[in-house]
């Protein structure tokens, strides 16, 4: 396919992109019909139907990607007519292209175009998720340091901080820290939190923040009283999670957070690197 044709098709697809009030990007099926070289709406509806089936088969909710919409067109003598249209996400456009006539030049282009664009969004989404998890892990580390400091200030020692934290884990998961490591395959030398999902990192952080607050407010002066407070708070957080269908100990292990951090830093470094030579 010639470079100028590719550039023209790229511009066309992006020019017809729309956005909802919430910023969600979409295309109208009537526009996409023309962009993909379909003369008859009925023929294009057949392609949309196949794409909906493919969407459902991949585990996505069809209504999240295909939304019926009306479109008003001008008729002779100033009359107007309401016709059927469909709002399509970028993923829906990709599925339509995949189910289109591969002999059409526009379809061949769209299959690759939307595949690449969809993949870009998947990569961005994954990076955002990794960043959020890393931020949650750092936040938990800082909160646990604060709790250790509070224990030392109010009891004169923090030598049993690890034991208090482990009791919190037992209250949250129903298993001790070591038992959870064994369940998830976490090395003994590594922190359990380094392999847990964002939801659990935030849950542990919330329970720990409550312990810090109440330890100060109630002026708890013994490790036992602070430990009991921490157990109660983790039990309460566990109850909340269970009520929302989340069983903490059943959530699978995530990628080592240290690897995630190295990967994110590597990507940032690559983005900042300057070429050795500048084109003249």
N-C termini distance: 29 Å
Shape call: elongated
Output the helix-strand order.
HEEHHHEEHHHHHHH
Total number of domains: 2
- Could you name the ranges where pLDDT drops below 50 across 5 or more consecutive residues? 271-280
Describe the protein's architecture and organization.
The protein has 280 residues and is an alpha+beta fold. The chain folds into 2 domains: 3-101, no CATH class; 126-260, no CATH class. Helices cover 64% and strands 9% of the residues. The protein contains 11 helices and 4 strands; from the N terminus they run H-E-E-H-H-H-E-E-H-H-H-H-H-H-H. It has a 4-stranded antiparallel β-sheet. Helix 9 crosses helix 10 (223-243). The two termini are 29 Å apart. The model is unreliable at 271-280 (pLDDT under 50).
């Amino acid at each position: 396919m010639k470079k100028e044709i590719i550039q023209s098709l790229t511009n066309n697809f992006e020019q017809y992109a729309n956005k909802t009030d919430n910023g969600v990007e979409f295309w109208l099926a009537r526009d996409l019909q023309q962009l993909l070289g379909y003369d008859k709406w009925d023929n294009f509806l057949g392609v949309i139907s196949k794409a909906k089936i493919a969407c459902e088969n991949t585990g996505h909710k069809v209504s999240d990607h295909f939304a019926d919409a009306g479109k008003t067109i001008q008729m002779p003598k100033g009359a107007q007519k309401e016709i059927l249209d469909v709002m399509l996400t970028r993923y829906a456009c990709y599925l339509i292209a995949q189910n289109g006539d591969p002999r059409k030049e526009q379809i061949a282009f769209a299959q690759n175009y939307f595949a690449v664009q969809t993949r870009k969004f998947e990569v961005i989404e994954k990076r955002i998720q990794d960043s959020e998890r890393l931020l949650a892990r750092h936040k938990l580390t800082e909160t646990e340091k604060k709790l250790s400091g509070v224990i030392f200030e109010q009891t004169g020692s923090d030598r049993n901080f690890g034991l208090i934290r482990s009791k919190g884990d037992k209250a949250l998961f129903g298993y001790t820290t070591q038992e959870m490591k064994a369940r998830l395959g976490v090395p003994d030398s590594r922190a359990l939190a380094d392999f847990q999902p964002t939801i659990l990192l935030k849950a542990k952080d919330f329970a720990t923040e409550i312990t810090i607050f109440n330890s100060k407010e109630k002026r708890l002066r013994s490790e036992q009283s602070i430990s009991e407070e921490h157990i109660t708070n983790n039990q309460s957080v566990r109850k909340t999670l269970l009520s929302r269908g989340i069983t903490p100990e059943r959530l699978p292990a995530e990628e080592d957070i240290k690897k995630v951090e190295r990967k994110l830093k590597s990507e940032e470094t690559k983005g900042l690197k300057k070429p050795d030579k500048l084109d003249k």
